[in-house]
Amino acid sequence: MNFDWSLLFNIVVVVNAVLAIFTVFREKRDIAAIWAWLLVLVFLPLVGFIAYAFLGRKLPKNRLFKLHKHVQMQLDERLNEQRKQLGHNAKTPADEVVLRSRTAVDMFMTTDAAFLSRQNKVHIYTNGNDLFHRVIEDIEGAKKSIHIEFYTFYNDQIGNEILDLLVKKAKQGVEVRVIYDSWGSMGTTRKFFQPLIDAGGHAFPFLNTRSVLLDFRINFRDHRKIIVIDGTIGYTGGFNIGDQYLGRKKKFGHWRDTHIRIIGSGVFGLQARFILDWNATSPRDQIDEEEVEAKYFPVTTTKGNVNMQIVSSGPDSDCNRLRWATSS
């Protein structure tokens, strides 16, 4: 009796197509991603599903949206208070820029609930030594909380200098929380942060992935670089925590990047993003809703000349907001 290989082939093709359709459509994604993954899964049956396991799977929404509505409510309340204090109708050159970019501003408000923050003070850094000199000064002056989130937090000279300072502040009673990416901070383990944990601080790898070898979702890396101090000073940009960013590695030479220091209500956007990422990452030591308002979003009377929106994207995003804005 001859085996009908063509029948087996047809069955495999049909089953693979059904599984591909089920796999792709079970999670919400944009149309381009749907077609791309369908083609990969249908025409590369085994290889396609392996690739999908590493690059295509999304994360459960219930793990990513804790505190989202409550945080946004607190932001709205704080901004309403600030508008009364700062004079919402005041016209500045920065306001004219906003009017010319109204389409992008409205899009970010709609897709990311990214509020428009006015009258911030912003300083730009393009040199790592200047940046970390100021960061260290600000951390030294922290009174209530220090929130740090970085793709790279290396176990090197600047990494240990920052860690020692965080340990010192934790011993003083300052709340210290650190999120680092296990892939970007390769070589930095939980043991490195143990002195901080022993001092009362907290440190977790992003989404609590302790090993890059066990992390199959290699597309979900935390490339954010965020520092928020006392809810009043914020940093974000391109520099990570590592000696190479200060020009100490011959292999990399002088590192040119851009980072900004923010004072004003623009810090609230960074704080909100950190809280969302923290509660998605930390299995314990969650930031309680009752603590959010007074502790992390203090009213500021800063009167600067920069308007801004803090816009983020990641595994909790159903669209690439930044790409939409730059292409519109």
From TrEMBL:
Assigned EC number: 2.7.8.-
The protein, known as: Cardiolipin synthase
Start and end residues of each PLD phosphodiesterase domain: 218-245
CC terms in the record's Gene Ontology section: plasma membrane
Subcellular location per the Swiss-Prot or TrEMBL entry: Cell membrane
Membrane-traversing stretches: 7-25, 31-55
GO biological process: cardiolipin biosynthetic process
Membrane topology summary: Multi-pass membrane protein
Database matches in SMART domains: PLDc (SM00155)
Single GO MF annotation: cardiolipin synthase activity
Native species: Lentilactobacillus kisonensis F0435
Main localization (coarse): membrane
Enzyme class: transferase
InterPro entries to which the protein is assigned, alphabetical: Cardiolipin_synthase, CLS_N, PLD-like_dom, PLipase_D/transphosphatidylase
Keywords, alphabetical: Cell membrane, Lipid biosynthesis, Lipid metabolism, Membrane, Phospholipid biosynthesis, Phospholipid metabolism, Repeat, Transferase, Transmembrane, Transmembrane helix
Domain of life: Bacteria
